[in-house]
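In this supplementary section we document a worked example of the pipeline. Step one takes a protein sequence of length 161 as its only input; no multiple sequence alignment statistics are reported here. Step two produces a three-dimensional model, which step three serialises into structure tokens for compact storage. The input and output of this example are shown verbatim.
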Amino acid sequence: MDEILEILAKDARISAEEIAKLTGKRAAQVKKTIKHYEDNGTIVQYKTVINHDLAKETNSFVRALIEVSITPQKDVGFDYVAERIYSFPEVVSCYLVSGTYDLLLMVEGDNIQTVSNFVASKLSPMENVKGTTTHFMLKKYKEDGQMLKKANNRKRLNISY
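The serialised model returned by step three reads:
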């Protein structure tokens, strides 16, 4: 991967001038390269990783990983079905994977019932969807290579018999 992309992937807030110092390139060339990557879709978005446990959000939400088995369509394979699925606003991420299922979805909703309703009323009834398995996320330890700081240092209770 291009060294400018590698640097931006680790820290999207770094300036073109700092990247120029790290790479030995001119700042103007770095800016031009970044603009090119933005224009051609290589750089899709700049993102902040947020530890929601520490943000103390009043509007909490539920995330779920959903395994989806699908029947690929003739001449378009998995792409057509995947596009229909990832078009739903509840779907945050969609990946084609190898293994016992075909697609892995990250889905968000206001509560467990919202995610359950999405699976029951929108996802499962779709043509070409053979089956789903839903895993609700309980806790996040690491995201995008960043370890998330713990919200508090509560220890588990000792179990005695």
